[in-house]
Each structure stands twice: as C-alpha cells, then as structure tokens.
Amino acid sequence: MYDVNGGSGAVAYQSKTSTSSGSTTFALRHNKPTPPAGKEFLGWAMGRAATKPVFQPGDQLTVQYGATVKLYAVYGAQGASTNDCVVQMPTTGAPDGLNVLAAGSIGLVAVGAAIGLRRRKLSV
After folding, report:
1. Spatial distance between the Cα atoms of 9 and 34, rounded to a whole number of angstroms
2. How much is the pLDDT for 109?
C-alpha cells in the first residue's frame, strides 16, 4: 500500500479482509519514510510522479471492496512543506491576514457560501 518512492525505510502495509461488498476506511500510518538527501517528505499521492501530496499521515482513506490502492511518497526541496496553509473567508471583508485559520489538514463543508482557499507560507 505504501511506496517510499526513492526514500528509505518502510511503512507497514495495511489490509482488511471482508466477505461483503461496499467499502472500508483506513487511517493512514503516522510514520514517514526517510526522504532522499536535500528533500523533505510532503505527504502521499496516488501516482509515482506526483509533485503535490493528496494525503497526510493520519488522514482517512476509503477504499472500495476488492480494490488495492498504492500510495507514493512525495518529496520536495527542504523548506517547501505543504503542511501549513491559510484558509480565509472572503465574505467577512477582513483585511488580508486577519480572520484566518491555520491548520495542517483541513476539511470544509460550506452551504450557500463561497470559500476561497489559497496557500501562503507562514512566517514564524
């Protein structure tokens, strides 16, 4: 299920056995591969050549019965982490940088509201 994609170390395989149809949900392993020299681990993607991760350790992944999913480690230059992001609600009229929520992985549900998402490197 996990391919370290040029890194080193191993992430334990996950599987579930079922005699019924439907789907099952996995919590992705929290351990991370050791990245190649000069790189950092950004997350997991569904393709070997991906440059942006789709999943982070601990995220939930739902898999249909009978399916096999392979996740590939995604690496970027050191300091290029995609774990920090800013979510700003443009309908508030607040100036840029105010009224924001910073988090690692964010799931949003909006009913009747427009939400704009953008990435911004946070300076500490």
Report:
1. 6
2. 40
Over residues 33-91, the pLDDT tens digits come to 999 999 999 999 999 999 999 999 999 998 888 888 899 999 999 876 554 444 444 44
Same-domain pairing of 76 and 92: no
- Of 59, 55, 56, 120, residue with least CA distance to 88: 120
**Token reading at 106:** 């964010």
Torsions phi, psi of 90, nearest 5?
A: -65, -20
Local structure of residue 34 (DSSP, 8 states)? B
Same domain, 96 and 41: no
Global pTM reads: 0.61
Does a structural domain hold residue 12?
yes
- Contact assessment for residue 40 and residue 13, using Cβ atoms and an 8 Å cutoff: no
Same domain for 57 and 107, yes or no, is no
Residues 27 and 69 occupy one common structural domain: yes
The Cα-based distances of 19 to 16, 24, 83, 90 in angstroms read 10, 12, 37, 48
